[in-house]
């Protein structure tokens, strides 16, 4: 019979750190996926200027990536990792995504009757 002789506070701290690491991993994967969707869109629509008809779709992808970036940065800061420059370099986050970080999406217009 194996007994954990660590004080309950140590066990709780260990569980909290494990959950923080898990959350960081999820947020990082979400950011990677959002950036990949944006890059795929840009590759599929590789032209000097995105056609006007495609701009809303691209803007949505930029906003989604910005939201994912925001969530990841906040989660990292909650664990004490305050310098986000490492994220920007490691994930190769475009400037426009960085600028959209934390912005709330525009409210949708109500349907007129």
Question: What is the element layout, followed by pairings?
Answer:
Blueprint: H1 8-44, H2 55-78, H3 85-90, H4 95-100
What would you say about this model in short?
The chain has 4 helices and no strands. With 113 residues, the chain is an all-alpha fold.
How would you describe what is shown here?
This protein is mainly alpha-helical and 113 residues long. It has helices spanning 8-44, 55-78, 85-90, 95-100. Helix 1 (8-44) runs antiparallel to helix 2. The longest helix has 37 residues, at 8-44. The relative contact order is 0.14. The mean pLDDT is 86.
Relevant terms:
4 helices; mainly alpha; 113 residues
| Rg from alpha-carbon coordinates | 20 Å
Number of domains: 1
Q: So how many helices? A: 4
The average pLDDT score comes to 86
Structural class: mainly alpha
Measured between the Cα atoms of the first and last residue, the distance is 71 Å
Strand count, sense and closure of the main sheet? none
List the helices and strands in order: HHHH
What's the total count of β strands?
Answer: 0
Low-confidence stretches: none
Q: Summarize the amount of helix as a percent range.
A: 55-70%
What sort of overall outline do the alpha carbons produce when their principal axes are compared?
elongated
**In percent, how much strand structure appears in the residues?**
under 5%
């Amino acid at each position: 019979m194996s007994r954990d002789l660590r004080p309950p506070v140590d066990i709780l701290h260990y569980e909290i750190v494990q959950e923080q690491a898990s959350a960081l991993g999820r947020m990082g994967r979400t950011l990677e996926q959002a950036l990949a969707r944006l890059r795929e869109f840009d590759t599929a629509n590789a032209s000097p200027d995105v056609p006007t008809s495609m701009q809303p779709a691209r803007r949505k992808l930029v906003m989604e990536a910005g939201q994912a970036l925001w969530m990841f940065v906040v989660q990292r800061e909650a664990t004490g990792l305050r310098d986000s420059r490492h994220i920007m370099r490691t994930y190769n986050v475009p400037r426009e995504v960085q600028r959209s970080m934390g912005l709330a999406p525009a409210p949708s217009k109500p349907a007129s009757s």
